[in-house]
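Marked as duplicate of an earlier ticket. Keeping the data here for the record.
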Amino acid sequence: MKVLRNSLACVACCFLALASFSIFASAYVGTQDKQLHYDLQTLAEWGYLDAAVTTYPVPWKGVAVSLRSISPEAMPFRPQQAYLRLKHYLDLNSRMQARQFFTLEGATDDVRFRSFDEGVEQTGKFTSTSEFYTGRLSGQLSVNYEKGGEYNFDRSFVAYQFGDWNLRLGSIDQWWGPAQSSSLIMSNNTRPVKAIALSRSTNTRSQSKWLSWLGPWYFTTQMGQMESQRTVPNVKLFMNRFNARPFKGFEIGLSWAAMWSGDGQNEGFKEFAELITFKAICAQDDGVCGEGELSKRGNHIAGIDLSYSTMLFNRPFTFYAQRVGEDSVDGYKITDNANLFGLSTYIYNAKVFIETSDTNIACGENENAFNCYYEHNKYLDGYRMYGRTLGSTFDSDAKQLTLGANLRFSSGDIMELYIRSAELNKDGTRSSPMLTKANTEDLLELSGFYQKPIGDWLLKAGGSVSSRKFEEIEDEVDALLYLKAQYAF
């Protein structure tokens, strides 16, 4: 594990050394424009693309072959626009056209709730990104300069492809599940995890007679490391995701993440074996535990998600759900489960969805004890990095309902709108990290953005207006604006 830490620390040096090679294309779809992942979902929901699409990012391999076999002439407007955007980027890859990006973003305040492609991370940031490809090796180097003089290499990675598999080192945004505005287990709500990952290099149907029954499928297993500024520094994070489409319109996903080890903790093979076999251990300092005091090694969170698309009224309707739990007191029985449900369809040139989730989960068998979801009695920062959860946009102890729309225009412009209603930390104890004022809050928020390509520029302007109601202090209305400009060479 110390080798992992040292490898991640010097990954930037590897990128600089590789920069002398020819710069070609990205290994993944949508690392610079996440709307391309929505395009993949659109083609899959309309039945034009047979691929597993509920894990982000998706590799180009497999998708590229499928796109070349699609004829767009008879398509309705929305899937046709999705096809044309994806085909444009595929053509860039096929021509091995060099790409480098400069991105400048700024906001009047911190964005509280980040959906898949909404908002900015900092009130001021400049990013320089270079993509490269040489032989089986590909990746990108991103240098992010933040307001205040800090910088990092988030969203930098190098990937080596062998057969149908990729070995990746670095950090990259991820999104696990079919939801549009949040994911209960892995989202881009916070900065990406630095990790070594072994992943399938395609998300289409396997040619193997032993695996073809799965339909299109994707799998990734990763060993990552969390930040050093936490109560237990440098916690390891073991992450796994499998999703497949065994029959037309239906996709299932299985996710599992486990926090373990960290500075001052044992992190050998024995401890890792206990982690993945869910062995009961004694966590007491003296090593003496009575009946009922044993616990599992690490902090586990796992779940299942489902989505099903069917044609109604000449358009696809997609029903989806996600159930993610943590903690087990009896073998593999999960005690604390959160749920997410959603429905999406297409109206004219817009994809619209309604989605709800609830992380206001009681702890164990006590129905009145909350403040436990994403928490852990040893890893006191919980399932979070830099103060934001790796899962739900709304963190723990939150009930929310979101109505959203993604509109496309023939010019290539994109607009997204969200209306959110959320009840944060209803019991008023142990404040959720998403609270900035009182210990409980009722929120109604309108947010969105407009994205426009102009030549080599991709411009985005967005913002939000929030009505915030509190019990002990005066209600207030907040507003923020943000701008993002990207120039591609």
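See parent ticket for discussion. Residues 1-24 have pLDDT under 50 and may be disordered.
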